[in-house]
Amino acid sequence: MARNAFPAHLRKELRKFYFTSWAPEPDNDAEFFDELPTWLRIKTSADLLSTSPLLGGMLSEGSDKILTREQREVVLRILAAFSLPTHLSPTHVLCKPGDQAQHVYLLEEGELLMLVPGLREPTVVSAPAIVGLGALLASDVEQCRTRSTTLIAATSCMVWKVDAGGMRRQLNNKVPEALLYFMRQFASQLRNMLAHANAQPLKPPALQALIARCEASLAALAELEPLQVQQVENFKKMAEESAAAGKYSRTSMALSSSLSVSQIDEENQTHVEEVLERRHEIVQEAREKAQEGEQGVAAKQGDVAFLM
């Protein structure tokens, strides 16, 4: 815990959880996060990601042309909800051609080797980097449903594995601008790979297949981008109309233009989880004060009754 430099309030909550559950702090970060309750795992992940250089300019203060401050916070919470940190040892194979594309990889520390079929020299990917963005489009682009390259840890690496399906759904429903940003980033990566492949004097069958795959993916992205741009415009229009009518809260305006009962229920569930989280904190604080013989427990119990 100390090496991650969590803020004092978060260290207190983490210690409180492990103390009350009679569990020692694990040495492995993946085990550490697996044992945390969902609300605490998301808060911990959000804190780590907020100070990480991973997300580059998109989540930085100077990125207002891409996302507003509120939108950056929503993206951060989405990533935190669907991410799990993993430490990789050198030579660990993260993925290989043919594997199902289920995760986006956020490389925070270390270096990965990308082995491209048909190319003799591997490509070195250094942190901070976002790899595997094609997984976000697996439901729309056939070529993105499986991996086309091999990723191997060249050094010890810190990688965040993000569930691509959950990330894509939440971004499209709440911050479609961010999904459009990632789509364009992926298209740029494909164009760079295609240019490098076409520059090779010899093109064995494996490389020719990769070139065809890149071209097909880019063609599919070219068709998807106008639809996503329209989704962004619809989202903005709905937010403006909702704000003018005063019908929805700020949280409600984070929903997409295709507003549905299930999406409203999802937002309500988020609110309930936040209330339960606060109630849990109050109960724990009251118990601690009771054990220490301090005053004010009755007031805390009143707060609990209110939250229930």
General description of the model:
This protein is an alpha+beta fold and 308 residues long. It has a single domain, classed as Jelly Rolls. It has 9 helices and 8 strands. It has helices spanning 8-20, 29-35, 38-50, 69-82, 164-174, 176-198, 205-245, 261-292, 297-307, and strands at residues 83-88, 93-95, 103-109, 111-115, 123-126, 129-131, 150-153, 157-163. A 4-stranded antiparallel beta sheet has the order 1-8-3-6. It has a 4-stranded antiparallel beta sheet with strand order 2-7-4-5, with no helix packed on it. Strand 4 and strand 5 (123-126) form a beta hairpin. Helix 4 runs antiparallel to helix 5. The protein is flat. Residues 22-26, 249-265 and 294-308 have low confidence and may be disordered.
Question: In a few lines, what is going on in this structure?
Answer:
The chain has 308 residues and is an alpha+beta fold. The protein has 9 helices and 8 strands. The strands form 2 sheets. The chain has a 4-stranded antiparallel sheet. Strands 2-7-4-5 form a 4-stranded antiparallel sheet, with no helix packed on it.
